[in-house]
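Researcher: If convenient, please comment on what follows.
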Amino acid sequence: MIKKIRNIILIVGFLSLIIWTFYFLFEKSQTPPEVFKTVTPFDTSIIKKTVATGSVTPRKEVNMKSQVSGIIEKLYIIAGQQVKQGDVIAKIKIIPNMLNLANAENRISAAQINYDNSKIEYDRNKVLFDQNVISKSDFQNFELRLKSNQTELEAAQNQLQIIKEGVSKTSGSTSNTFVKSTITGMVLDVPVKEGGQVIESNTFNEGTTICSVANMGEMIFEGKLDESEVGKVQTNMDIVLTIGAIDKESFNAKLEYIAPKGVTENGAIQFLIRASISKDNSAFLRAGYSANADIILAKKENVLAIPESVLQFEKEKTFVEVETTNQKFEKRFIKTGLSDGINIEILEGVKKGDKIKLPQLATIKN
């Protein structure tokens, strides 16, 4: 009897397991009802813009160069230092050119000989003039020749001193061996060191840059804009600069220059643009900061908008699907306005509170 009951229990348990398995598989095979996400129109500001990449640079940056060739004897500045116009930034020790030195010495020798001869003639005729042997007009010729030869000798001596030291006796404290700043600003870079050789700046040679000085109080943005975008912009447009080195802070600027000619870079035509950066921000901008410029093409504030990703198209018309009842939607044609690539202005077709179907492949960006 017990054995019979046990068999019955096993059979019932086995049948229950089979029934539960079939029920589980059946439930699993059923497709759940599709639930669509919805979005509602909202008020926002829409800014249509184009982006240019570039860097921050001083409007006025000058390279300081020497007027003479030689060796840097002393540097008086370091990068980051403020200097004023006329401040001495370096002293150059002249290494004279041997040919010029020999010519100058030969010139002194010739001038000295002429001066000595004229001095002898002057002294001899001075005695005759004092004794009234010769007339005053005759004596003046010897006096004039002496002064002329004396002037030539002094000029030759000054030339030799300039070749050797870069300064003459008659120049006083003025010397071209001292390199002075031509503007007031900050020293950005000092590419040379004491003991290094420099070449003078002249018509045929740019010369060695001793340092670069810039006015850091007036900064500009310089960047490149693609040819597909340059036709959309014009001078005096507002720009918002974002600088990678300065987090959570933006800078206002005004577009002031668009190059009339493009250049080819990486197979594309790029146009140089320049914008003046507003001084209303207290952050210190370093020369060379990379920056992105958002050039504002159009702007509307407090307009009704929806995410552009919910738009659907039928021929040349635009529509959205608006929920009528629980997960039931109807097609509704709309009229759109300004778009920033993420959100788009709605002029007609939907209102606040409408639930608009979000297509399965669409995404919404904040």
